[in-house]
């Protein structure tokens, strides 16, 4: 059973990075180690995107919670994926908090997504009683493989998360926060999880501090590729890159954790 209100603040952006197209697998891995190990000052500077943005999930300052119920205004689908008989204006809050790395000051604002015992999604004829769902789906995304630019070339997914200390996560539960689902719904190309991950999802299911107090990234086989402690006092920024031009056993050529700014 989930706690009465479980929030997470996030701003997802999807970016296609054409400039990395010719790199090899080993070069990708080397870049990942460089980004993780070296505290380069350039990583802390905000600047314009160096590759075209395919989908932009950032929230403009002039939007209200009611905007997420309007198909011509919301950057997300107004239908999926949420509890039956709930509207997004009942689920989303627009908190007063500091600006994240990917937001532009005075232009964008963060959003907060909540779940509770009403967050039961109807799949087919029945409600999914085993878990709670409130998943924002970018409205211009197409499901068929290769149907849009997010499934072509080399794609980078960026997002930031920050905790709401007034409504903390119950980390004895598993939280799937960001994922890229396969077109046939057979699994995810990557998953960003926190809390105690169940064995069926690749975790141990053990409610221990080292298990539940970490963000982790999984590949399509639910193997853990990366982990970092969950912080309660700052934004945490992440990026994952998928390479559709080259086929590897591991579909994620490299991933980068972007330092807090």
TrEMBL record:
Residues 53-246 form the Glycoside hydrolase 131 catalytic N-terminal domain. Pfam families: GH131_N (PF18271). This is Glycoside hydrolase 131 catalytic N-terminal domain-containing protein.
């Amino acid at each position: 059973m989930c706690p009465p209100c479980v929030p997470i603040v996030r701003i997802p952006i999807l970016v296609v990075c054409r400039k990395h197209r010719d790199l090899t697998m080993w070069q990708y891995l080397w870049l990942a180690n460089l980004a993780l190990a070296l505290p380069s000052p350039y990583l802390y500077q905000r600047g314009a995107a160096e590759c075209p943005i395919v989908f932009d999930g950032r929230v403009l300052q002039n939007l209200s919670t009611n905007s997420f119920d309007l198909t011509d205004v919301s950057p997300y689908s107004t239908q999926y994926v949420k509890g039956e008989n709930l509207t997004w204006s009942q689920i989303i809050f627009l908190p007063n908090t500091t600006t994240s790395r990917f937001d532009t000051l005075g232009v964008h604002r963060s959003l907060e997504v909540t779940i509770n015992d009403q967050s039961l999604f109807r799949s087919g004829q029945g409600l999914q009683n085993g878990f709670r769902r409130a998943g924002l789906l970018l409205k211009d995304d197409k499901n068929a493989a290769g149907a849009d630019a997010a499934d072509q070339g080399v794609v980078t997914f960026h997002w930031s998360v920050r905790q709401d200390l007034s409504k903390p996560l119950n980390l004895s539960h598993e939280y799937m926060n960001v994922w890229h689902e396969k077109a046939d719904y057979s699994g995810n190309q990557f998953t960003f999880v926190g809390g105690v991950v169940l064995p069926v999802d690749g975790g141990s299911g053990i409610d221990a501090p080292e298990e539940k107090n970490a963000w982790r990234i999984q590949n399509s086989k639910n193997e853990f590729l990366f982990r970092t402690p969950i912080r309660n006092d700052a934004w945490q920024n992440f990026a994952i890159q998928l390479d559709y031009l080259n086929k590897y056993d591991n579909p994620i050529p490299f991933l980068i954790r972007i330092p807090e700014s």
